Amino acid sequence: MSPFGGWGLLSAFLALLCCTGSGEEAFEVRTWPEQLMVESGESQVINCSTTCTQPNTGGLETTLHKTLLAEQDQWKLYEVFNISQDTDVICHFTCSGKQESKSLNISVFHPPKQVLLKLWPTLVAVGRSFTIQCRVPSVAPLEGLTVTLLHGSEIVYSQTFVGTTLSPQEAMVTHNTTAHREDNRHNFSCRAEMDLRSRGGDLIHRVSDPQALDVYEPAQDNQVVAIITVVSVLLFLFVTSVLLCFVFGQQWHQRRTGTYGVQAAWRRLRWAYRA
Ligand SMILES: *[C@@H]1O[C@H](CO)[C@@H](O)[C@H](O)[C@H]1NC(C)=O
Ligand SMILES: *[C@@H]1O[C@H](CO)[C@@H](O)[C@H](O)[C@H]1NC(C)=O
Ligand SMILES: *[C@@H]1O[C@H](CO)[C@@H](O)[C@H](O)[C@H]1NC(C)=O
Ligand SMILES: *[C@@H]1O[C@H](CO)[C@@H](O)[C@H](O)[C@H]1NC(C)=O
Ligand SMILES: *[C@@H]1O[C@H](CO)[C@@H](O)[C@H](O)[C@H]1NC(C)=O
């Protein structure tokens, strides 16, 4: 037996193994992209293709509104519209009476559209505590969302969310910290980062408007106290001296006019009034 005969036998055996009982050619169905993450309400182009050289039929099955953009024997290009919730679309082809399909899972995300930063109080003494709060309304998935509180370009606090909630919800980070003298110099801000790279998406980030913190020296407090004290002491001295002057003046007057000087003066005044 020639070696070629052996090969022939082997390949016949392999062919039998591969397509047992059917006699149809094996083929694959693919989707491009293979995984899909879309922003809520977006549309997306999907390429549905097969390795079968002469498929009978093929298409994309979905509850979403779709249109066929282009096609050739081995692929069909669709656009699906207004994807508003997680869904599966199925790409299928029939080749020599046999059907193969491939499902594509579409996940919808709600990116951070607003990042709201709040500082309170906004006027704080050095060494006193203040609160930084950042809210990111209506985001999904929350998992993998990182909210970072920044002072200038320096990170004050950072939190990465965990969990598998799919419905959009608010992400909130609250951090208490102590006011430093330097806090006056830079604005505070908050950055929200949604990392969808592991799901076939992008890294999306958005930053809040800057917020300033007014930091004052507690020494100013002491100055105010000192001023109030000095003014009080001066006022006291003034009032005391006026009183003393009055008292000494009375005594001096009494010595000159006698004890009933005031009464005599009063009587004289009344007579003067009647007359
Ligand atoms: C669709 O995918 C097939 C297979 O990967 C490829 O040959 C074809 O060029 C793609 N069509 C478009 C319009 O990208
Ligand atoms: C998109 O889908 C949402 C929810 O299914 C619907 O409320 C909205 O009207 C749709 N928008 C368009 C432009 O079709
Ligand atoms: C898509 O989701 C279905 C169930 O919803 C699951 O069985 C399938 O494995 C998923 N496919 C991929 C590629 O993640
Ligand atoms: C921050 O401080 C406020 C009061 O100053 C307190 O009510 C709140 O629980 C604190 N928050 C954290 C996260 O420590
Ligand atoms: C802080 O932000 C305000 C408003 O955006 C801006 O006018 C100001 O220059 C910023 N200050 C600093 C120190 O960056």
Automatic annotation (TrEMBL):
Bilayer disposition of the protein: Single-pass type I membrane protein
Chain ranges passing through the membrane: 224-248
Cellular location(s): Membrane
SUPFAM superfamilies per the UniProt record, alphabetical: Immunoglobulin
Keywords: Cell adhesion, Disulfide bond, Glycoprotein, Immunoglobulin domain, Membrane, Repeat, Signal, Transmembrane, Transmembrane helix
Listed GO CC annotations: cleavage furrow; microvillus; uropod
Entry coiled-coil feature ranges: none
Signal peptide positions (record): 1-23
Pfam families per UniProt: ICAM_N (PF03921)
Keyword Magnesium: no
Gene Ontology annotations of biological process type: cell-cell adhesion
Intercellular adhesion molecule N-terminal domain residues: 24-114
Any GO MF annotation of the entry: integrin binding
PANTHER family: INTERCELLULAR ADHESION MOLECULE, INTERCELLULAR ADHESION MOLECULE 2
Family from the record: Belongs to the immunoglobulin superfamily. ICAM family.
Protein name stated in the entry: Intercellular adhesion molecule 2 isoform X3
Species this protein is from: Tursiops truncatus
Annotated gene: ICAM2
